[in-house]
Design goal:
139 residues; Helicase, Ruva Protein, domain 3
Length: 139
């Protein structure tokens, strides 16, 4: 999501809770002045950050918060199929069923798996089937 956002000329600050307050405050003001969207990414809500600037605290308090939950089974299926299709590969249904029960429930893990499965399928000149996905999950 952040890659898409930054590719649309938005400003992204990852691990925003660790960024200096002045950096966040200046980024917020630049965003407001220029109309360029600002995305602050954190594992914690802004109320839990150690913010020393009252003006920044009030701005963050008024910000739209979006909580992105880990992917469920259906999302894992859809993302794996799409990411493999984007790479020119398809995954068999039995392999998909096997993977979704065993893969880490994170968007990064799904992307890494799709990249690795596609690379292995190309290297072995094999389909993304149950045998191949077992190898990928073991490595």
């Amino acid at each position: 999501m952040a890659r898409y956002f930054s590719g649309q000329n938005g400003t992204v600050i990852d691990e925003a809770e660790a960024a200096p307050a002045e950096t966040l405050f200046n980024a917020w003001n630049r965003s407001q002045e220029s109309g360029v969207p600002l995305l602050l990414i954190s594992r914690w809500q802004p109320a839990e950050w150690n913010i020393s600037l009252p003006d920044l605290q009030s701005r963050l308090g008024a910000a739209l918060l979006l909580d992105i939950a880990p992917p469920d089974d259906e999302m894992i299926e859809q993302l794996l199929q799409k990411q493999l299709a984007d790479r020119g590969a398809a995954i068999s249904m039995d392999a998909l069923s096997y993977v979704k029960r065993r893969i880490e429930r994170s968007f990064a893990a799904i992307e890494k798996f799709a990249r690795s499965a596609n690379a292995m399928a190309l290297a072995e000149n094999a389909p993304v089937n149950l045998t191949l996905v077992k190898k990928v999950l073991e490595s």
